[in-house]
Specification:
The chain has 17 helices and no strands. With 388 residues, it is mainly alpha-helical. The chain has one domain. Helix 1 runs antiparallel to helix 5, helix 2 crosses helix 5 and helix 6 packs across helix 9. The radius of gyration is 21 Å and the shape is globular. 39% of the residues are buried. It comes from Candidatus Electronema aureum.
């Protein structure tokens, strides 16, 4: 029992990375020293480096390109170099340490622990949502979240509550379906879906993408599992429809569905989709700017600002930088496809490329990216062991 609690706490810290005001940095960084020490002190961990040497090659190539761009904007280049270094540590080295030392490489066991961890996170979100005074205390005196939104959303003890958090929980619902997780499935899924609704609606897009992919690619000849998915979708729609009328947060969450219909039928131009496409989709005016970037930070630029990850990456290092980022993820997609099948690979890396429209996530160690890489290392290591 104590082992389970400790494992869930450690997984919570790694995946959700809460930033407490007393330390003012993500708690995942507490894994850095033991993980690096573990990597360099164990002889057999050379096999881990060999296992992922192509992935490391792509990341170091990306860092080298950032170094070449330093004369143009040294501060921004150093920031991207730091982001990629953190990415190596938190998305490759730390998850291997967690799997090797703490959780183990049993796929069902790891997925079960992640599932339980997400239930804890979703329960915290639900408590913060129904008890506003507790939420106010947590946000004002306990945690610091750079992406936290005041008012009608942001109910979590996690980094990126208005972006990464809901994507993380959506992925866990999808993985639970994919690996046929049955224990408290519907109750926990309701909690997870509520946590998505009250924090960031992009989680609904990920849910739709993942569930649709599972139905089309895996469940198309399995009526029982399709029925299970149908019940889950019905629960989602029922909750949103019947609870939104009495609560501003849920009304905002429900507006995702009306905005989606309006966007695809051209009923309303004032939607989040139109804002992304019309106001945030632009590119450098010169050919050299498109190819090699302009060394401009447009994430924090008041005059020319965009949330779209692809646009941010192009303005920094051009299509060449975006190409290097994509090479890593395409290679990993193909490798996971060969190791564990097309469906899981398509969903996990599809989530990364979809999410990069809403914010820069390629080679960024945000919560759901760390979760995806944890799954990736788990499945790749197990495939290598089984092939010996």
């Amino acid at each position: 029992m104590i082992f389970r609690i400790v494992t869930i706490v450690l997984l919570y810290i790694y995946i959700y990375n809460p930033i407490f005001q007393v330390v003012n940095f993500g708690l995942t960084k507490f894994f850095w020293l033991p993980a690096l020490f573990h990597l360099f002190s164990k002889k057999n961990n050379a096999a881990f480096v060999k296992l992922l040497h192509i992935e490391f090659f792509f990341v170091f190539l990306t860092i080298f390109y950032c170094v070449l761009l330093m004369p143009r904007n040294i501060d921004l280049s150093l920031r991207y170099i730091y982001i990629n270094i953190v990415f190596i540590i938190e998305c490759f080295i730390v998850p291997y340490y967690i799997l090797h030392i703490i959780v183990g490489f049993d796929t069902k066991k790891v997925i079960s622990f992640i599932y339980l961890t997400s239930i804890v996170a979703a329960t915290i979100s639900f408590i913060l949502f129904v008890v506003p005074d507790v939420n106010f205390y947590v946000k004002s005196t306990l945690i610091h979240d750079p992406l936290s939104a005041s008012g009608i959303r942001s109910f979590s003890i996690a980094e990126g509550s208005t972006f990464s958090y809901s994507i993380t929980n959506a992925i866990i619902v999808i993985i639970s379906l994919l690996y046929n997780q049955k224990r408290f499935f519907y109750i926990s899924s309701i909690l997870l879906i509520i946590s998505i609704a009250i924090n960031a609606r992009i989680g609904f897009i990920i849910l739709f993408f993942g569930i649709s992919s599972i139905i089309v690619l895996q469940y198309k000849h399995n009526s029982g599992k399709i029925f299970r998915v149908a019940i889950l979708i019905a629960l989602c729609l029922f909750l949103v429809k019947n609870m939104s009328a009495s609560n501003e947060t849920l009304k905002w969450a429900a507006s995702f569905f009306t905005e989606s219909v309006d966007f695809f039928h051209n009923y309303n131009e004032n939607t989040t989709y139109n804002t992304l496409i019309n106001d945030m989709f632009f590119y450098p005016e010169t050919v050299s700017g498109c190819l090699f970037g302009e060394g401009i930070d447009i994430w924090n630029n008041a005059g020319m600002r965009s949330d779209i990850g692809y646009i941010n990456q192009i303005f920094f290092g051009g299509l060449l930088y975006l190409f290097l980022l994509s090479c890593l993820n395409i290679y990993m997609f193909r490798r996971l496809w060969k190791a564990s099948g097309f469906v899981i690979s398509f969903i996990l890396f599809g989530v990364i490329f979809i999410s990069n429209f809403k914010g820069p996530v390629l080679n960024v160690s945000t919560g759901f990216v760390k979760l995806i890489y944890l799954y990736y290392i788990l499945l790749i290591v197990n495939n290598e062991r089984n092939s010996i």
